[in-house]
Specification:
Radius of gyration: 17 Å
Helix content: 25-40%
Strand order of the largest sheet: 3-2-4-5-1-10-11
Distance between the termini: 22 Å
Mean pLDDT: 95
CATH superfamily: Class I glutamine amidotransferase (GATase) domain
Shape: globular
Structural class: alpha/beta
Low-confidence stretches: none
CATH class: Alpha Beta
Number of helices: 7
Number of domains: 1
Strand content: 25-35%
Number of strands: 13
Order of helices and strands: EHEHEHEHHEHEEEHEEEEE
CATH architecture: 3-Layer(aba) Sandwich
């Protein structure tokens, strides 16, 4: 039985401590252990220390970083940390870097853990990584029209973007326009959160900006409230 996913937008000036506290409390585990994946920010120690501190303030127990960059395969210790954790956490940064930095054996293990009911949480780029895809450009400035979809983990059955309402969700709209006819993607505003239930249904904490693919274009589909 799969568990819930928690997609937090984060963003400049937002305080995610309350959402972290509510999510961790939902697990029903006293001081849950957290396996932290920081590939999206090149495993920056400052990112880890900040997020580990916020998670502990919100009720987490041990927060352990899983170093994956530059590895073709994870070590036994890496796999054990992921397997033994109560929650897998994906941190923010750059989405494509985050996905590319996860070795194939770890991706397979993450899917197994997901199927076994392990809850996952992502913030900012980490939230997008839990979704279906994101747009990729070889040269976004010179050839903005030449985008393709880049596969993410696909645990949540939609494409998402986070805290980019200030630029009118340009990457989300591109991802939706490249998706099948009728496909809908969602922008999570700064400070917002989406809970993804095991059946794939979405419960947002704030209205989401929704876009639907119509004839190869991303068309506004109003505010999604669940």
């Amino acid at each position: 039985m799969r568990s819930k996913l928690y997609l937090l937008a984060g963003g400049p000036g937002s305080d995610i401590t309350g959402d972290l506290r509510r999510c961790l409390a939902e697990l029903g585990i006293g001081r849950p252990s957290v396996a932290y994946i920081g590939t999206a920010n090149s495993e920056n120690p400052a990112f880890f220390e900040r997020m580990a501190s916020l998670l502990r303030i919100a009720g987490a127990g041990e927060v352990r970083a899983v170093p994956l960059l530059g590895k073709e395969q994870a070590t036994e210790e890496d796999l054990r940390t992921l397997t033994d954790s109560d929650l897998v956490f994906l941190s923010g940064g750059e989405v494509e870097d985050g996905i590319a930095g996860i070795p194939a054996d770890v991706r397979a293990l993450l899917q197994q853990l997901r199927d076994m009911g392990r809850p996952f949480m992502g913030v900012s780029a980490g939230a997008i990584m839990l979704g279906a895809a994101c747009p990729h450009w070889d040269d976004e400035d010179a050839r903005p029209e030449d985008a393709v979809l880049f596969d993410c983990l696909g645990f949540a059955p939609a494409v998402f973007d986070t805290h980019c309402e200030w630029e009118d969700w340009v990457e989300l709209r591109k991802a939706v326009s490249l998706s099948p006819e009728g496909y809908t993607g969602y922008g999570i505003p700064a400070g917002g959160m989406v809970t993804v239930d095991p059946d794939g249904s979405l419960t947002p904490s704030v209205p989401l900006d929704a876009y639907r693919c119509e004839n190869g274009a991303a068309v506004p589909a109003g505010k999604f409230r669940g």
